[in-house]
Automatic annotation (TrEMBL):
SUPFAM superfamilies listed in its UniProt record: FMN-linked oxidoreductases
Protein origin, superkingdom: Eukaryota
Origin species: Salvia splendens (Scarlet sage)
Flavoprotein among keywords: yes
GO biological process, one term: oxidative photosynthetic carbon pathway
EC nos: 1.1.3.15
Alphabetical keyword list: Flavoprotein, FMN, Glycolate pathway, Oxidoreductase, Peroxisome
GO MF entries: (S)-2-hydroxy-acid oxidase activity; FMN binding
Protein name: (S)-2-hydroxy-acid oxidase
Amino acid sequence: MSWFGNWYYVNEDQREGSCEKASVEMGEITNVTEYQAIAKEKLPKMVYDYYASGAEDQWTLAENRNAFSRILFRPRILIDVSKIDMTTTVLGFKISMPIMIAPTAMQKMAHPDGEYATARAASSAGTIMTLSSWATSSVEEVASTGPGIRFFQLYVYKDRNVVAQLVRRAERAGFKAIALTVDTPRLGRRESDIKNRFVLPPGLTLKNFEGLDLGKMDEVSRPTYLATPHPFVHAARSHAIFTVQANDSGLASYVAGQIDRTLSWKDVKWLQSITSMPILVKGVLTAEDARIAVQSGAAGIIVSNHGARQLDYVPSTIMALEEVLKSVLIPTPIELKELCKLPFASALESQSHCCLSLACLVSNEQSVFQVVKGAQGRVPVFLDGGVRRGTDVFKALALGAAGIFIGRPVVFSLAAEGEAGVKKVLQMLRDEFELTMALSGCRTLSEITRNHIVTEWDAPRGLPAPRL
Ligand code: FNR
């Protein structure tokens, strides 16, 4: 059975196995990673590869996972952990746990319910879903699934009118924040998409573009991408969105034509001028950019390498996290001067969970007093990339993240079991995270500190102090 009707048979020769192979026996799933193998069996090769692959050598793809295994625990014992509270607040919205859903494009390729199923699963888990602007369901359709806290992911196009329309649509549909993706001036080279000549399957469209005035976007794309109609050219509102070119993936063709390579920090300010939604900057990996993001008015930062799909050989996000957090939380000398005018007590009252962790983290370099003051009015930092276990969530929080997002586990579980699969992924991560908290002696998120973990880049512990 295929989700795509006829399209399945068109692509059958691309698959590794036969039709029967698609009916996978599912024993009891006991962890998130198991869904990947099921998705591989169930999905057409082109779709599975699109979801699974990273850029070029896929070094960062492996590193996103491997790096977590180089962080170990320092659990505390004999603490009453009979009650564990995982609730937290993100941009003022209370959620049941610090585990949220990252934007992943085109979810109806995984399951006919696509983004509807993800929205329902997120909502019933009491957490946030981020909808990709390249979703196969529109913001209105996702909103129609019922109440839920949802963010809208945005790429910025050359035609700002298109961007403004998308933002307005999301706002009207009740979305609460924009996740502005900033690591994609060009699409990374995913070689399997090139080999497979990736295309959006027939019958699916990028729904958020339907009904928009695509004005200049068409003019920009027509000479290059619409000149020669191709049997694999599909449409969003009868405008070609994906094409196949000899030496390129169809997706890259689209992005190359539409995404604005001139995007810069001033556009973050422009975006703030057209929406009252807070803006999370998604794709920050360095201290320098984190600082500029804060200065540019970002409401939050997502440390992300786009699931290792953009620049290969960037560090894993869990390795980059601490650099970003330190830079965001430690004030510059000028800021410090300003902050010192504030009464210490009020600074303490308003600190967030992630500020607390960082206060511990940097206590050797700056006084906790300074850092807590520096954190006043600053932004939460989130992470995505390679999170597959509750222990990974704990490690990210111990390093100072305010929460994490998951990408591939959602599309793989969607492919396997639709909405029930996504629900199960969220539940498994929740259960594992709760267990990790209990076994580490933490009852609330604010009790998770840097001292609960040790990383390979920490100073060796237990060595004699150097002689002075
Ligand atoms: C993505 N990601 C992504 N990011 C974004 O800003 N807009 C998008 O449309 C997409 N689409 C997308 C599709 C697929 C198939 C993947 C795997 C990823 C990146 C995504 O938001 C997130 O950064 C990563 O997926 C997180 O890594 P993990 O959890 O997949 O390892």
